């Protein structure tokens, strides 16, 4: 009997989540008309009122996300603090018309109301499986930001590899790629940071995507992106990208940035 080498429980789980995510995506895309509903658990610290806002308590009680019909907006207004905030589950409603995703709505907490029209309710889904399907759907939904955010808040989901692939996919729409880059900056570990660096320094990349990658590097915790920004500012062949890197270095209050400015001005 042959023994499989290098197959770990984590790898098995990731493969299962990937396969499950594709299967879920296929089920959603198979619906031609109507609304597809699904629910899943959210990660610790996420809560909402089931209707108008979602709070990420891990980032502070003022980290509020509110929604209009198609866009994600962030608000730090204290008026949200006194509202009831329920820790899940997340509920996603995906509207399909002629086979296309035309709308995606996201709620945390609350319950589904009303059942008129053509509704396909998939019930409670494994959170990592739902997250992978939502990233896949981001490329098909006009409000990609909401689909990606819905994936980010899923419990136990690791979606940065899919976000990185989406950010690098030149066939995808630029706004979608920019949203992927933004959320990479929020969830960046070493590998994701490497991916942001590659995007920012790739001369063949779309300019808006490169600009967003430079911004994302500036937002990493503990100024982890500063060394990369310094390298971009010193060596990148595109003067506009160098200026972007210098601008965000100037916002960092990092002594390494100050040293670079001194070096540049002294040489001048």
In short:
With 268 residues, the chain is α+β, with helices and mostly antiparallel strands. The chain has helices at 9-30, 127-138, 144-152, 160-168, 174-186, 190-201, 207-218, 226-235, 239-250, 255-267, and strands at residues 34-40, 46-48, 53-56, 64-67, 72-75, 90-97, 100-108, 119-124.
Note down, in words, how this protein is organized.
This protein is α+β, with helices and mostly antiparallel strands and 268 residues long. The chain contains ten helices and eight strands. Helix 3 runs parallel beside helix 5, helix 7 packs parallel to helix 9 and helix 8 runs antiparallel to helix 9. It starts with 8 loop residues before the first helix and ends with a helix.
Terminal Cα span: 70 Å
Strand content: 15-25%
Q: How many extended strands?
A: 8
The H/E string reads: HEEEEEEEEHHHHHHHHH
- Characterize the biggest β-sheet: 4 strands, mixed
Radius of gyration: 21 Å
- Unreliable residue runs: 1-15
Shape: globular
The order of strands across the largest sheet is 7-6-1-8
* Helical percentage: 40-55%
Q: What is the structural class?
A: alpha+beta
Q: What's the overall average pLDDT, rounded?
A: 83
Total helical segments: 10
